[in-house]
Amino acid sequence: MKASSILIIYTGGTIGMKQDPVDQALKPFDFSQIAEEVPELRKFAVRIDSLTFDPLIDSSDVEPSLWVRLAHLIRDRYDDYDGFVILHGTDTMAYSASALSFMLEGLRKPVIFTGSQLPIGVPRTDGKENLISAVEIAAAKDGEGHPMVPEVSIYFDSILIRGNRATKLSAEAFDAFASPDCPPLAEAGIRIRYNTRVIRYPADWTQPLKVHDRLDTRVSILKIHPGITPEVVTVFLLAPEIRAVILETYGSGNAITRPWFLSLVRTASQSKVVVNVTQCKSGTVNMDLYATGKTLKIAGVVSGYDITTEAALGKLFVLLGRSEDPEWVKNRFGEDLFGEISK
Ligand code: ASP
User: Which ligand 1 atom is at minimum distance from the Cα of 57?
Assistant: First the structure.
């Protein structure tokens, strides 16, 4: 079998930072220095090319334009590589991986995000293992020569999880990411175990990659909380420039039942897409369970089931970019498009 070829796209993040001797702040260094820190990469029978963003960015500065850039890079080099590894800061990695999963329709190759909590040059870094295993998984093929994981995913601290199921849970622990409602796609121990029952494989290995690169970012996120006022809710729900609202509700998708709130939700739902996502880290929205959820359903709110807020945002950006029709967006939002919801 022909050796795999992998493109590493380095966007920035802690993995490639070192302390500035003057102001002690962490600042990025270039990929050649990362490669120097990880000579193990040369031991793989894999061709590795790299591409470095200029400027490198802390992922707190990620904008949807970066996702478009990544999607175009993958599209333009799709036939040249067997897989892609994206080095990215951890802060917004779950947002970027989610968005890419909705932008890259018909994906047949691995696109693996990774990064680290400690810079790659420090002795206890988690960056080395993350990078080495991400490359190994991106290059892995089955007996028929098909990639083991043809999805957008995140590799971090021994687990590979679906990108649009990921959420950053810890600012300090090495196991910073979790996928609460979907089992890992792979786990790295002595050997890498692939969870082939969970990984999504294309029905047709010759399907073309279709890139959805028109993103409409006119979305607001409203986290419901005790004491929230009609003034605040009005801004998030009725601002004329907003086309979709993510309501982060309690538990199984419950929110305030007071008439002022329901009337605002009803008005918003007439012209906008209002979706229901739970504030809980795991479990699903079920708007038939409690009266407080039922009233939202009657008011026209669409269930996000167990989608994460990160995935809901990327899904809406892409769907709104694909259609001006709110009803079409509502219908597609309620469907499982790329494994982002359990239905
Ligand atoms: N602020 C950094 C970033 O997201 C944190 C990290 O990479 O872990 O780029």
Answer: 9
Which residues in 200-303 belong to E strands, given as ranges?
210-211, 219-223, 244-249, 273-278, 302-303
Q: Are 4-211 and 219-333 the same fold in CATH?
A: yes
Q: Which residues line ligand 1 (CB under 6 A)?
A: 12-14, 58-60, 89-91, 115, 117
Residue 59 alpha carbon to ligand 1 centre in Å = 6
Which class is 219-333 in CATH? alpha beta
- Report the first-to-last Cα separation within the chain, whole angstroms: 38
pTM of the full predicted structure?
0.96
The tens place of each residue's pLDDT in the chain, 343 residues long, gives 678 999 999 999 999 887 777 887 877 777 777 778 899 988 889 999 999 999 999 999 999 999 999 999 999 999 999 999 999 999 999 999 999 999 999 999 999 999 999 999 899 999 999 999 999 999 999 999 999 999 999 999 999 999 999 999 999 999 999 999 999 999 999 999 999 999 999 999 999 999 999 999 999 999 999 999 999 999 999 999 999 999 999 999 999 999 999 999 999 999 999 999 999 999 999 988 888 888 999 999 999 999 999 999 999 999 999 999 999 999 999 999 999 999 7
In angstroms, the CA 234 to CA 236 distance is 6
Nearest to 198 by CA among 166, 169, 160: 160
**What is the assigned CATH class of domain 4-211?**
alpha beta
Q: Which of 11, 14, 52, 125 is catalytic?
A: 14
Tokens representing 71? Answer: 């999607």
Q: How far is the CA of 264 from the centre of ligand 1 (A)?
A: 37
Q: What's the CA-to-centroid distance between 239 and ligand 1, angstroms?
A: 32
> Domain extents for the chain?
4-211, 219-333
Residue nearest to atom 8 of ligand 1 (CA): 90
Q: How many angstroms is it from 133 CA to the middle of ligand 1?
A: 19
Is residue 14 flagged as an active site residue? yes
Q: Tell which one of 17, 58, 131 to mutate to probe ligand 1, the residue whose CB is within 8 A of the most ligand atoms.
A: 58
CA-nearest of 29, 10, 8, 25 to 121 is 29
Residues 6+ away with beta carbon under 8 Å from 280: 251
